[in-house]
Amino acid sequence: MTEIEDLEEYQLIKASMDGLVASMDDSSNMKKMMLHICSSGGKSIRPIILVLCTELCGGHSQKSVDAALAIELIHSASLIHDDVLDDGVIRRGIESAHKKYGVPAAILCGDFLISKAISLISSYGTDSVLEFGRAGMYMAEGETIDISSAGREFRKNNYFDCISKKTAALFAASAAIGAYVAGADRDLALKLRDFGECVGNAYQIVDDLLEYLDRLEDKQSTYESVTLPQILRRSMGHEEAVRVTVEEVNSYVNRAKEILDEFSTSDAKDKLLMISNLITLDMLPANILEENQSNS
């Protein structure tokens, strides 16, 4: 089965990121932190979606590289800052930046990444820059909702508001920016923004479900967010909460696929469909998927 790391788009982004880090001053502590962050082995899902959406809309992947790097950098910055807020100890299987280098250095590294991301996205058109800025603001808003989530007053509508901003906003921006890079009009870009938002929501719900089931091995935090299955457990049993959570995932994934169905067959479309499954439904334990399918 094809893995994300096998995609040409992944290799393009990885090579470009390696080149960016290599060009930094060797004596810079920032470079050391960047090397540590890059060693965590992230799959670059959001920038890959950006590049693929450029290709889907008839553009060339090379045109979208700087925009894709901007997305990856602001995402990395958000993870650094999130780990500081949550006292995250392990991220992607390695020590978090603030545990290794200290909180002040980690915060400054996050600030550096955001600034570099802005410089990279600034060479694109107004629409792309506005999408990028919108995502950054939503991510911060979503995180403020998340850190205040403890307590029974945090309900389903609060949860979905949180994840649509904290997580799905950057997926949405990635897809829309990819379209704009290719020269697509606003209607097409907004359609792909909807696709990205659906995939991003499904991705976060799956991540939260895996955490609820204690199936996450490469992430460890002192603070834990209130998640959908936890909210559902207030009014139903464990198995029912899991089933309803998986139904939500299916709903978002199906909507994302319906949007892609409106596009002609292409290699980029096939890859986007594959990624939509790989980072959502394919991440769920087989027994849970089978049980959900038998009940549907």
From TrEMBL:
GO terms for biological process: isoprenoid biosynthetic process. Keywords: Isoprene biosynthesis, Magnesium, Metal-binding, Transferase. Its cofactor is Mg(2+). GO terms for molecular function: metal ion binding; prenyltransferase activity. It holds the Pfam family polyprenyl_synt. The keyword Protein biosynthesis does not apply. The keyword Magnesium applies. Belongs to the FPP/GGPP synthase family. PANTHER family: FARNESYL DIPHOSPHATE SYNTHASE (PTHR43281:SF1). This is Polyprenyl synthetase. It comes from Methanolobus halotolerans.
